[in-house]
Amino acid sequence: MFKGPFSFSGNKSRIYKLYLQNTISKFSRVHEPFIGSGVCLYNSVGGGIGLDIDQNVVGLHNALSIQDFPKMVLDKYNRFFRDPEGRKNSYYKLREDFNKSWKEEGLSSNNLDSLYILVQHSFNSLLRFGPNGFNVPWGDKKFDISRIKEAQRIFLQKGIEVTHGDFRELDLDKIDRQRDLIYIDPPYIASKYQYGGWTQQNDIEMFEWISLLDELGYKFILSNTLKHRGVKNELLHHFSEGLHTKVVKMTYNAWSARVKAVEKEYGTIEVLVSNFEL
Ligand SMILES: C[S@@+](CC[C@H](N)C(=O)[O-])C[C@H]1O[C@@H](n2cnc3c(N)ncnc32)[C@H](O)[C@@H]1O
Q1: Taking 50 as the threshold, does the pLDDT of residue 121 lie above it?
Q2: How many domains does one find in the chain?
Q3: What's the predicted TM-score (pTM) here?
Q4: Up-side HSE of residue 90: CA atoms within 13 Å toward CB?
Q5: Domain interval for residue 167
Q6: 163 lies in the same domain as 245
Q7: Does residue 153 lie within any of the structural domains?
Q8: Is the CB of 205 under 6 A from ligand 1?
Q9: Residue nearest (by alpha carbon) to ligand 1 atom 17
Q10: CB-side exposure of 226: number of CA atoms within 13 Å?
């Protein structure tokens, strides 16, 4: 299993490994309209299309199309991280250098290599931006160039396409109703700490869009929470009637660790909802 090109809060590597691997291997291509780090897409047989509303996420995927990208990353790493004793310092210097360039020209082929290095070393491997740029503190992580090389190999070999946009912009004409799967992994409404912007209205519109996919004959799997910290997700409950629902047992340690007030996840029921038997 490939962990995805970069670490990402809410990535589905554990769910993929325990619940989705078998199913996904039966489809030619897997499309992720909420790609994040795209664990399911990168592990699919023949790649697919990804979409994300976050430009930084899209930039990190598309950097892999630059032929000598791993070399660029390695050169920059060697330039900034010369002193093994001063890695923390090097991280903050690189962050400063990245943010200067990011403010001048946004994400570009000049600074994406830095962002890969930063996200590999950031606290809890977080990818987070504020008005002044990337703002995650040092996380004392190891540098792993092989992960970037492997990501690029998969990206190019499988012809993965990632574009910036809303999930509804997924180009259905490029998707085969029988052989392809649409894996839908939105921000969860109940996990308000995770993706601030997602609202109940977003959920309503997403369920309408998924119902349309279903009517048109596309195969889908939706990841979501039926209950979160004891609160039932009535909308999802209603939506999933007549569909297949599988309960997955997971706890989000990394997420819990980041939110000081939350010691432990409890009362959470995470599910996979699909229009075929898993
Ligand atoms: C739970 S994460 C996906 C994680 C992914 N499955 C993985 O393995 O890493 C949800 C993603 O949806 C994106 N997103 C939020 N609103 C969106 C929208 N309206 N359209 C497309 N993507 C959106 C977020 O930026 C985030 O990357």
Answers
A1: yes
A2: 2
A3: 0.92
A4: 19
A5: 13-56+159-274
A6: yes
A7: no
A8: no
A9: 53
A10: 16
